[in-house]
Amino acid sequence: MTRDTQEANRVTPEIMAKYEAVIGLEVHVQLKTRTKAFCGCSTRFGDAPNSNTCPVCLGLPGALPVLNRRARELAIRAALALECKIQERSVFARKNYFYPDLPKGYQISQYELPLALAGSLKIEAEGAAKRIGITRVHMEEDAAKNLHEGFADSDRWSYIDYNRCGTPLIEIVSEPDIRTPAEAYSYLTTLKQVLEYTEVSDCNMEEGSLRCDANVSVRLRGAPKFGTKVEAKNLNSFRYLAHALEYEIERQIGVMEAGGTVTQETRLWNVAGGRTEAMRSKEFAHDYRYFPDPDLLPLTASAALVEQVRAAMPELPDAKRARFVSEYGIAEYDAGVLTATRALAGYFEAVARAGAPARAAATWISVELLRRLKDAGKEIEDCPLAPAALAELLAIVERGEITAASGKRVFATMFDTGKKAREIIASEGMAQISDPGAIETIARAVIAKNPENLAKYRGGSEGVFKYFVGQVIKESRGQANPQIVNEILKRVLAEA
Length: 496
Description:
This protein is α+β, with helices and mostly antiparallel strands. It is 41% helix and 20% strand. Strand 12, helix 5 (238-257) and strand 13 (265-270) form a beta-alpha-beta unit. It has helices at residues 3-9, 13-16, 69-81, 181-197, 238-257, 303-311, 317-328, 332-338, 342-353, 358-376, 387-398, 404-417, 421-428, 436-449, 451-458, 463-475, 482-495, and strands at residues 19-30, 85-86, 89-90, 92-96, 106-110, 116-125, 128-141, 145-149, 157-161, 168-174, 210-220, 230-235, 265-270, 275-281, 291-292, 299-300. The protein folds into 3 domains: 3-304, no CATH class; 315-428, no CATH class; 436-495, Arc Repressor Mutant, subunit A (Orthogonal Bundle). Helix 9 (342-353) packs across helix 10.
């Protein structure tokens, strides 16, 4: 067991309560462009290694970068969605460091004059709403990708795929306003939702479109100064981020309680070991020797351009939730579920606009459809049930042609086979029974079979009534109209 692990394991809840964490997140987001930030090479993921490269993104002598106009627009769109102030003039800089995945020996980024400043993002965490400040949003280019093979030193190989090098990024830097791993998790999920809604990025973490580094320190509650921060990297899922923060907070508290000093460093999250591990000492800004890139003019964002980008902005999640409540009359909770992704919100609206009752559509999608998709391992984009087909089924149920129970059976068959609702209803004889005479026949037969329950009902046990209703519905294979069943049972039981 390592010293760090021992320190983390011996921290009690009482000791933890003495401290608070201070967390800031740096999120790198690949912009959804067809070509790279400063050249015409494709950004397509999954192509043969090193096939999408040119002298510009490889940093060959004499090659000159030219800014991707679409990347600029998407970066401004993201900054506006995060309520940032867009700077009319920003400057690209060279961030100098030497890694195998950086062919130029520097990264084109922004430093002293970034694209946007002073934004915020509203989150919900641990039952409370909170605003997290956004320090800055700046543009930069991605590095190449290191690929490692083998484990033993004698049989370990490393390769570099330069296809990713030069892909346009924005870096979103939060204020140190986050205090718990739960808040960090909420911040990232909310940020991802905003970026997907605005179509700034596909945010595919498996493909590296969204990556996060966390800066975390601890201090005694009420202390005015921040503690020594540690950067946690290799956080390729939101769940890993929360686990890494939980571990690192305990580790730092353990160090301080033992009389030690937290070292400013970069640590990697070891997924298998469930711990952070020291990687290198943490660099300072001056270590990167920033200076303005001599090959790129300052980036201008005129008021007219900003308003043009704002006018083309898709509807944001908060606005869509509010509209769903007001326009469709659904509950706020349902609106929250249905707007979790832009695709799901679009599916709901398509069902409602195809004629389905909005509230019924909200309930069926939130419960039945999402459960089926989860069980099938599918996303809403892969749903085998077209919105118009679901709308037809819900309209049939609403008109009372079949019962809600039968509707669920029809829905399951539609999901599995792709058949239409009416085709399934006709082939399986599932039309709702609304004939009072037929329902009364079933009701009298059920009562005759249950003399003991009839006696209980006569004795004043109203709860037995529900039993009789259930039995009549069961005998009708779920097809009897529940309202008519209730009316007839009350009359027949009164006569019995």
